[in-house]
What we know:
The complex is a heterodimer of chains A (115) and B (115).
Chain A: E1 3-5, E2 10-14, E3 19-21, E4 24-26, E5 32-39, E6 46-52, E7 60-61, E8 64-69, E9 74-79, E10 88-96, E11 103-105, E12 109-114
Parallel strand pairs in A: 2-12
Antiparallel strand pairs in A: 1-4, 3-9, 5-6, 5-10, 7-8, 8-9, 10-11, 10-12
Chain B: E1 4-7, E2 10-13, E3 19-25, E4 31-38, E5 42-51, E6 54-57, E7 65-70, E8 73-78, E9 87-94, E10 105-106, E11 110-114
Parallel strand pairs in B: 2-11
Antiparallel strand pairs in B: 1-3, 3-8, 4-5, 4-9, 5-6, 7-8, 9-10, 9-11
Amino acid sequence: AQKITQTQPGMFVQEKEAVTLDCTYDTSDPSYGLFWYKQPSSGEMIFLIYQGSYDQQNATEGRYSLNFQKARKSANLVISASQLGDSAMYFCAMILARGTYKYIFGTGTRLKVLA
Amino acid sequence: DADVTQTPRNRITKTGKRIMLECSQTKGHDRMYWYRQDPGLGLRLIYYSFDVKDINKGEISDGYSVSRQAQAKFSLSLESAIPNQTALYFCATSGWSSGNTGELFFGEGSRLTVL
């Protein structure tokens, strides 16, 4: 069965440091997409970054990059130069491109950036 | 105005009451989804719809029903609310078009408390 696993319920990082949030996924479908979302304390869901299963290069969006290791089935989010505003819940999600177009989510990692 | 709008944003109700959460979107997307978020459990899919004639159950559909009144409107009903349906509910849409990666676009969320 398809599954997303985030093993870090909570993390701390010092301001201006880099941090990696872990995500592993499980699917037998060769075509899929991986997403990261940020949820600040205000509750809204903010799309950060996307990686397609056939993309050769790791996705980057500003201070966010996705460390995609297909053989390991991992899609870790790297935030460089952490800022206080990065404190939030982060969710990893997957879509199976063929078939149902269902999106499944991990349980999230709460990141706290320390001044 | 938000592209995906949910009403109400907050609701407190009593056990046994019927509740409807409404969602409307201006993105022109065909696919619409209802998720619930619980602490430690991430986002779980309740129902999803690919057009007005296509409704599908997600992983936790028991106790819920939906209606796709139009392409832009997708409502979630709790016929007889119970306390363990207390959660944050999100409506989301997706659609493939130039410039997007197929990511989900979320409403602001509806916080439901069942006493």
